[in-house]
Design a protein that fits this description.
It contains 5 helices and 14 strands.
Length: 219
Amino acid sequence: MMHIIQKKLLELSKRKNLAKLSLREMAAEIGMQKESPQKIKHHLLQLQKKGFLQIDRARGMMERTNTEPGWAKGLLEKTNRLFSIPIIGTANCGPATIFAEQNFQGFLRISSKLVGRLKPKGLYAIKADGSSMNRAEIKGKRIKDGDFVILDSDDKNAETGDAVLAIIDNKATIKKFIDDQKNGQIVLKADSSFDYEPIYLHPDDDFCISGKVIGVIKK
């Protein structure tokens, strides 16, 4: 049985282009003003995964595909070399000054071959902002300002040399992870043609690894 919010969002998609509405506006349009934007985002993701909605951010469209589950699943199986992963915001590749709010930005439709995965489980995209990782190479591609960085949220066990999305005091930054056990510290280091100061952390500090960088989609 489809969740009531998903049903209402599908009905709304008949009348309006969802891509032009904010999450709060969608909640108001379906008569659920008190629902959180995160819950609306969750149900949009579910509709995308089930094949009921097709999102094309380039054209600014969020369209219905089909309301028959069997048909939608069959379509997804036939096109399993392509999948959509959520874009959840922007991370600063310079100083850690951008809040890591998982604000839904749409979907990135990519080939599985670009990330070396057959399924999109655990994957999400962040748009790079800054130049402090412009020498970091991920599968032969460097992270430049404006590129989409693909992360695996299921892999948070960073090792020295990994490019990661680190959350420090609720702010996000993409850096190279260094486990400096000799000096009892964690170092988040830029890999850049510019001179950026590293971030030095104690292992007990309030920070976490939100995921490892596994791919770069050039802007």
